[in-house]
Each structure stands twice: as structure tokens, then as C-alpha cells.
Amino acid sequence: MSTLLQTIEKETGANPSVAIIWMHGLGADANDFVPMLHELDLRGLPAIRFVFPNADTMPVTINGGYVMRAWYDIVATDLGRQEDEAGLRASQAKVEALIEREKARGIPAERIILAGFSQGCAMTLQTGMRQKEKLAGLMCLSGYVPIADKAAAEHTPASLATPIFMVHGRMDPVIPVARAEQSRDLLKQLGYSVEWHDYPMQHSLCQEEVVHISAWLKKVLA
After folding, report:
1. DSSP element (H, E) containing 70
2. 145-169 pLDDT per residue, tens
């Protein structure tokens, strides 16, 4: 197994009993969502360890082969065509190594949340749907289910008990909301419990979304 991904860690208190592994989008890095911790209302929650990993760097086809941080290659603007299955599975293994590290540090699977934006959201679903243990939740921001046919075949019975929070911008020019809605509908058809919100925004975040994230965290970590 390769070395663990580089991470930034922030703990909201001593001896955290919850871990949230939060993955950035294409071309961003581990710092991307650290400032958001100050916006979330975490009152009443146990101490949380936020783990923000850096994806490895790779040439990204759609960006002219420019090398940047990416969880997998993107070959075409039509995200459902020519998906980088090998890259997705390689990054899945690296995310699973971070899950195992949290378990080794004393946080059980059912108290671990996977979260991500855009490509990070795709990795949240790629990894979370294939876990052999229930996780505390999957927080899916402005993304989609990658290699959807394989996900439908490979999702585990244990993962069906993991609650999913899924949000998207109605004017998203990067990942059309229709793609996210297809993913939401697939998840529901498979038997997942999905809380869905959409907002009048593009490929970004908004204040209403932050409020909904805070409320969902309180619900699944109660």
C-alpha cells in the first residue's frame, strides 16, 4: 500500500469521537474547506476530527493535460462518458486507508463521515457505497455517482444503512443538476436514505447550504 495521503487535521475538542474526512474538488487542495469550519454550527456535537486530504497530482485530460490535484482523470465534458475507472478505484483505496487510520485511532466506522465537493463528492459516493460497515453518513456536495452501473452492482448491504446528504446548484455549469438528480434517483432506487436540497447557485456553496449541513450533522451524529 502506498503512503497515506497528506492531510490537514482540525479538531473541535479534545479526544474526538467523530471523524469527518472531507475531500476537495478538481484542482483545489486540502485547504479548500478548512475555512468553512468557522461557518458550521457545531454546538451540541461531540468533539470532531476534521481530516482534509490532498489528492495526488496528475495530468487532467480535459484541462489540456495540465498537472493538478485530482482524484481521477476527466476525459470529456460529458462526465458519464469514458470515465477513469482505474483512477477512481486507486483513489478509493487511498480514502479507505484514511478510514482505517481513524478506526485505528479509536473512532469506529459508524462515527466516520465521508464528505466531498465535486470530484470529492464523487469519491465520497465511490468509497461510501462499497464499505462493509455502516458509516455515520455521506455528505455529497455538487457531485454525482461515478461509474454508476458498477456502483449499482457493487454497493454493499451495510452501506444501505448509511444516510446520504446530497445538495446541488440548479445553475451548475460544471456538473449539470440533471446528472446529480439521476444519481439521487439511483441511490433511492437502490434503497439509500437520501436528504436532497438544491439551491439557486452555480458550482459553489451558499449560506442556506451551510445551515442545512449543520442541521444534518446534528441529526446523524445525535
Report:
1. none
2. 999 999 999 999 999 999 999 999 9
Provide the grid cell at 91. 483513489
d(CA 219, CA 41): 12
**What is the pTM (predicted TM-score) of this model?**
0.97
CATH number at residue 208: 3.40.50.1820
Q: Which of 46, 32, 217, 24 is nearest to 139 (CA)?
A: 217
Nearest to 71 by CA among 170, 164, 143: 143
pLDDT digit string, tens, across residues 47-93: 999 999 999 999 999 999 999 999 999 987 776 668 999 999 999 99
Are 116 and 98 in contact by the 8 Å Cβ rule? The answer is: no
Asked whether residue 1 is domain-assigned, the answer is no
- Annotated catalytic sites, by residue? 118, 172, 203
